[in-house]
Amino acid sequence: MINNMNTNTIIQIALATTGIINCSIAALFLFYIKRGNHKSNILLACIALVICLKLGFALVINIPHEWNLISVIVYYGSQSAYMAIGPLLFLYINSLIKKEISSISRLLIFTPTFLPFIYDVPLEVMQLYFLCFLISVFFNIKGYYSESQNTKIYKSDKFWINTFFISFVCIWLTVNLLLVDFKYYFFELSVICITVFLH
User: What's the distance, Cα to Cα, between the start and end of the chain in Å?
Assistant: First the structure.
């Protein structure tokens, strides 16, 4: 089977597999760690898990198989996972900057993430949905820094918030390349894996 794969396919499988392993280990660690901001840790673990599902799509499209049902589940699951990244990022950053979100709001922002299982959501719609959260997170971070001018913000905390946010902006930007041609999927996969490895 490996002999029939080109270099690009092998690299994609290697990246996806490594990313899934790293995210799984990180998620388990974050779920059970007791120190620090527990809510933030749980949300970060959830982000790691949805990235696992997103990376699973890379394996399904690159490894020859006859698991039709699993392929369908992973395909729509990866779309749902991608749509969940925006709300999870929004909640995670807000948990770091101590901004409370109501239970109803949390429920409402996650409702659209289940649409891929009942409707084939166009990539343009998923990108617009993700962009709304990126814009909201940007202004929340900006507002937090403005309100905290007279209080101490650790440079490490600020660096983490900024780089984490920028990483997901980069993911959003590279996914736009898929609107041009699916061959650019390698760039999306690479940026996701770089984000996983760096954080």
Answer: 33
